């Protein structure tokens, strides 16, 4: 059974460009990770500080590997102090 992740990231207003740039850096390496089915970044049309990753993973275990990979560690270091809010929802599709 696959896992859907919805990650909401809200940048501090003065750091929108930095956070967006660092989030975009995650896309290519993450899409190559084992278990990644899709990994899509969105930016809110009304609130440019609000970003959403819509992710699908083949398993919870492989998503956990992703959460401990170097690109994510690099992202967290780069945006330290620049993110106002971060929320993750782990979900399962209902067919």
What does this structure look like?
- With 95 residues, the protein is an alpha+beta fold.
- It has three helices and four strands.
- It has one domain (3-91): 2-Layer Sandwich (Alpha-Beta Plaits).
- A four-stranded antiparallel β-sheet has the order 2-3-1-4.
- Strand 2 (36-43) and strand 3 form a beta hairpin.
- The model has no long low-confidence stretch (mean pLDDT 96).
Compact description:
This is ABM domain-containing protein. By secondary structure, this protein is an alpha+beta fold. Helix content is 35%, strand content 36%.
Strand order of the largest sheet: 2-3-1-4
The SS-based structural class is alpha+beta
Oligomer: single chain
- Quote the distance from N terminus to C terminus: 11 Å
Strand content: 35-45%
Whole-number tally of structural domains: 1
- In the CATH hierarchy, the third-tier topology is known as Alpha-Beta Plaits
Average pLDDT score: 96
Number of strands: 4
Fill in the keyword field for this structure.
95 residues, alpha+beta, Alpha-Beta Plaits, 3 helices, 4 strands, globular
Q: What's the structural blueprint in terms of helices and strands?
A:
Blueprint: E1 3-11, H1 16-31, E2 36-43, E3 50-57, H2 60-67, H3 70-78, E4 83-91
Antiparallel strand pairs: 1-3, 1-4, 2-3
Helix pairs in contact: 1-3
């Amino acid at each position: 059974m696959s896992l859907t992740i919805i990650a909401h990231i809200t940048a501090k207003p003065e750091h929108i460009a930095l956070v967006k740039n660092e989030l975009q850096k995650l896309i290519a390496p993450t899409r190559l990770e084992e278990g990644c089915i899709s990994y899509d970044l969105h930016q809110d049309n009304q609130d440019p500080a609000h970003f959403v990753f819509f992710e699908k993973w083949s398993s919870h275990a492989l998503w956990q590997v992703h959460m401990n990979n170097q690109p994510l560690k690099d992202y967290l270091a780069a945006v330290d102090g620049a993110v106002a809010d971060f929320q993750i929802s782990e979900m399962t599709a209902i067919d």
